[in-house]
Amino acid sequence: MRYFIAGGAGFIGSHLVDSLVSMGEVTVYDNLSSGKQEFIQHYLKRDGFRFVKADLLDRDRLAGAIKDSDIVFHMAANPEVRTGRFDTELDLKQGTITTYNVLETMRLHGIKRIVFASSSTVYGETAGQPIPEDYGPLQPISLYGASKLASEGLITAFCHLFGMQAWIFRFANVVGDRATHGVIFDFINKLKQNPEELEILGDGTQKKPYIYVRDCVDGILYGFQHSDGQANVFNLGNRDTTSVTTIGRMLIESLGLTNVRLKYTGGNRGWPGDVPQVRLDTTRMEKLGWKPKYTSDEAVRLAIKEILGKI
Ligand code: NAD
Fold first, then answer.
1. Could you say which architecture CATH assigns to the domain 177-208+240-276+294-309?
2. Cβ burial, residue 114 (10 Å; 0-12/13-18/19+)
3. Considering the entire predicted model, what is its pTM?
4. What is the pLDDT of residue 311?
């Protein structure tokens, strides 16, 4: 099998590559805008592995690289939910247009299967929780979430019109080794600058499910291998949640710091576009026979340990 991984040098993408290299030939296509070559460096000389440093907005490069692939894993995007407020074109280009380019290039080269990294941000602020996959209407409140929803729409339309098949995973917050963004990463940087005070965006009560990155990759592959509809959509995360204050306290404890002041910026959400309370209904993955190995709190603890171990 020949796997094409757009965004394969990124945090989640590179962990996916770790699993796929033993399953077939792998092409990583990444512009290294937020990914790092060091995450895949050890595979560069391996038979059957290819790294193409290029942009998904470059359709010619994309066509040349994708053309003999059997399955496309599309893991590339602007990874920050927050940035859309300051640059309203970013998610449109790096989320929606790039997805269109992937799909159109697949169509032109007769590639039929796509696995897509979507996000629970597609749900926006829902009337009830936990949120199942068939919840509606889907009304994202960030441009990041809007671009994920637009991408999902493009994917299902391409599936219907051109006989393609898709696996769409709406991730919770993914944490673990190689993370280059996210709450743990931000908190570590803040505490490095000032070990006496930790600024927490919002009032700290925001609660979300966190999934360990290896669990996330296992879930993607399990869902992909065990479902066969035309457009298969799954929430991928834990049922339980961890609050932002809890993450701050876990980190402070792991760093062995004492007397750290927690300074809250206030308000019930971290930033405009942040959904402060998220609980996902994961029955669909459970019915397939899959559950994450680690709870949300365990995932956060493990991620803290791994990230600190590298500093
Ligand atoms: P990441 O930034 O580490 O990975 C994204 C990768 O895509 C990077 O390597 C980047 O260089 C590459 N990329 C971005 N734009 C590109 C372009 N135009 N052309 C080529 N390569 C490009 O982020 P991640 O956390 O690993 O996220 C992977 C996917 O999962 C993303 O689609 C993200 O939106 C989604 N997701 C992540 C989380 C999370 O908590 N990390 C949650 C929900 C969804």
1. Alpha-Beta Complex (3.90)
2. buried
3. 0.98
4. 67
